[in-house]
Specification:
The termini are close together. The chain has 214 residues and is an alpha/beta fold. The strands form 3 sheets. Strands 1, 2, 3, 12, 13 and 14 form a 6-stranded mixed sheet that branches. Strands 5-4-8-9-11-10 form a 6-stranded mixed sheet, sandwiched between helices. Strands 6-7 form a two-stranded antiparallel ribbon. Strand 4, helix 3 and strand 5 form a beta-alpha-beta unit. It has a single domain, classed as Rossmann fold, CATH 3.40.50.
């Protein structure tokens, strides 16, 4: 059983992050720290606190019609919509309220939306919400895919981000590598952990991790 320790953000000391040390394989990289956000994404009180903190990054002049929730962040997304509305962020939707949308993906990982979901994306100003952003590849694909549907991305928010910008957009995150200075991400074909003979502890993605029996 992998053990975690809690990390507290310098900017948001009331929000703890669970970090597990090891060798983890993600869809886009190998990492030496896995960030467990399961309770943040599912526990009502934690999800609300995360949403309140993320909302602080957006001015009242920002327009958000739809929040695209990736990595299982739907609960946070609903609270974020409430917080943005309270702070004066407007929606151009006819009913003056935001859509909370979970995208579907095809076999190549391309984001797709069915016909009955198109009205929530087409010609809308959208905010992308993620749990974790490491290489930026997933978000870059998402931004490109949303353009196909005529959507305009007005913001990118994440609980943790290893970068500050993706696809020309600033990333608003609660935690960065300054909070976890030991955090390192490697390409699959140049992982120093693999080169050092360190076995993989778990396979992980936006849903969680699965330990590998050794």
């Amino acid at each position: 059983m992998l053990e975690y320790k809690k990390i507290y953000s310098k900017r948001y000391p009331d929000i703890p992050l669970k970090v597990i040390e090891g060798h983890f394989v993600t869809p886009n990289s190998h990492i030496n720290r896995y960030i467990d956000m399961a309770t943040m994404k599912t526990r009502q009180s934690e999800a609300r606190e995360v949403a309140q903190a993320l909302a602080q990054a957006y001015a009242s002049t920002t327009v958000v019609d739809t929040i695209i929730c990736m990595d299982g962040t739907e609960v946070i997304g609903a609270f974020l919509a409430d917080e943005l509305t309270k702070s004066g962020v407007i929606s151009m939707n006819q009913h003056k309220t935001m859509y909370i949308v979970t995208p579907e993906y095809d076999q190549l990982g391309q984001m797709i939306f069915r016909d009955n979901m198109m009205m929530m994306v087409k010609n809308k100003k959208v905010l992308i919400l993620l749990a974790s952003l490491t290489t930026g590849k997933t978000v870059s694909r998402a931004v490109e895919g949303l353009k196909y549907y005529g959507a305009e991305v007005t913001g990118v928010s994440a609980i943790f981000s290893a970068g500050t910008k993706v696809a020309g957009l600033p990333i608003h995150s609660l935690f960065t590598t300054s909070d976890i200075p030991e955090y390192v991400s490697y390409n699959h074909d140049s992982c120093k952990l693999c080169q050092s003979g360190i076995k993989v502890d778990a396979i992980c993605n936006g849903f969680g991790y699965s330990e590998i029996q050794k």
